[in-house]
């Protein structure tokens, strides 16, 4: 297989794994989600603590149990960079659903995944999720952003970008739906 064909094969394998992981997240299947992670994965999630090491099936299932029905979502502005045995994926995540207390979730956040190839399988070794915060000194997390306003609302009132930096990124490159 030539280099270009091999690169395409690796990208397809990673995307297939990410799609299976996304389906497992939507279905609230903790075991299946964690089957796509390394044993020593590192996670910087939206919820405390600041960092978690290793798989935590009970913790993930506990979070899943706070949802009524499936967890919905989509991915926008996804980017995948593949190297020799390592890869990085990033995108804007949109999580939707209903919590068991009846509250509706409609949250955009950023996510970066570090992947490694182990025993012929691509696995998530590093997970990082975050939301922007107001740059006005208050430290307030901005949880009410929507896709159309994701850049302008977060920064225009509190942070001035240099004129040469675009406010809107390149067109959408990928969409992975969790249904």
TrEMBL record:
<dbReference type="InterPro" id="IPR032710">
    <property type="entry name" value="NTF2-like_dom_sf"/>
</dbReference>
<feature type="domain" description="SnoaL-like">
    <location>
        <begin position="23"/>
        <end position="133"/>
    </location>
</feature>
<dbReference type="Pfam" id="PF13474">
    <property type="entry name" value="SnoaL_3"/>
</dbReference>
<dbReference type="GO" id="GO:0016853">
    <property type="term" value="F:isomerase activity"/>
</dbReference>
<keyword id="KW-0413">Isomerase</keyword>
<dbReference type="InterPro" id="IPR037401">
    <property type="entry name" value="SnoaL-like"/>
</dbReference>
<protein>
    <submittedName>
        <fullName>Ketosteroid isomerase homolog</fullName>
    </submittedName>
</protein>
């Amino acid at each position: 297989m030539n280099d270009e064909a091999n690169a395409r094969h690796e990208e397809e394998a990673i995307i297939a794994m990410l799609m299976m992981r996304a389906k497992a997240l939507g279905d609230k299947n903790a075991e299946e989600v964690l089957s796509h992670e390394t044993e020593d994965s590192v996670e910087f999630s939206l919820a405390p603590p600041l960092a978690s090491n290793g798989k935590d099936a009970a913790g993930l299932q506990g979070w899943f149990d706070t949802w009524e029905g499936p967890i919905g979502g989509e991915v926008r502005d996804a980017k995948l960079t593949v190297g020799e045995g390592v890869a990085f994926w990033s995108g804007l995540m949109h999580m939707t659903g209903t919590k068991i207390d009846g509250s509706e979730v409609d949250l955009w956040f950023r996510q970066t995944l570090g992947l490694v190839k182990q025993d012929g399988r691509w696995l998530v070794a590093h997970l990082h999720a975050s939301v922007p915060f107001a740059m006005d000194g208050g430290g307030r997390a901005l949880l009410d952003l929507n896709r159309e306003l994701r850049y302008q609302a977060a920064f225009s009132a509190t942070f001035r970008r240099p004129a040469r930096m675009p406010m809107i990124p390149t067109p959408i490159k990928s969409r992975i739906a969790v249904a």
